[in-house]
């Protein structure tokens, strides 16, 4: 999905669903993030109006929670573990391989919005080191051939 693909009707439906429930800001933002992969900045005014709060409050929440982003992300968000156990088991070379296969640096999203590459602290699956997540799925005991196969499986050509 690219930013120009934002379905404004879907966005309005999500906002309407949570309208007038001030406490529902976080579930509302989560639903938008889930639906579009980010919080479209142009939606903040509308959300603020619907929930009767200030736009700056929404900006504050988005900035505070790492799970929210104002920038569009790829269809697949890779979070490569940088924790100690993964580092010891070769996590750094796995990250290097992913960077070179995707042509992305940490924090970058490909021009086709297929992948976003991020790194993270321990994913809590050290026994499976080295690990990464793609969206909500875990991948462990990574090796270069396994990484290549996983990336190929998630590439556009395979869809
Ligand atoms: S250090 Fe990578 S999962 Fe714990």
Automatic annotation (TrEMBL):
Keyword annotations of the record: 2Fe-2S, Iron, Iron-sulfur, Metal-binding
Domain of life (superkingdom): Bacteria
Pfam family, any one: 2Fe-2S_thioredx
Protein name according to UniProt: NADH-quinone oxidoreductase, E subunit-like protein (NuoE)
Cofactor: [2Fe-2S] cluster
Family: Belongs to the complex I 24 kDa subunit family.
GO molecular function (one): oxidoreductase activity
CDD domains recorded: TRX_Fd_NuoE
Spans through the membrane: none
Residue ranges that the Swiss-Prot or TrEMBL entry lists as coiled coil: none
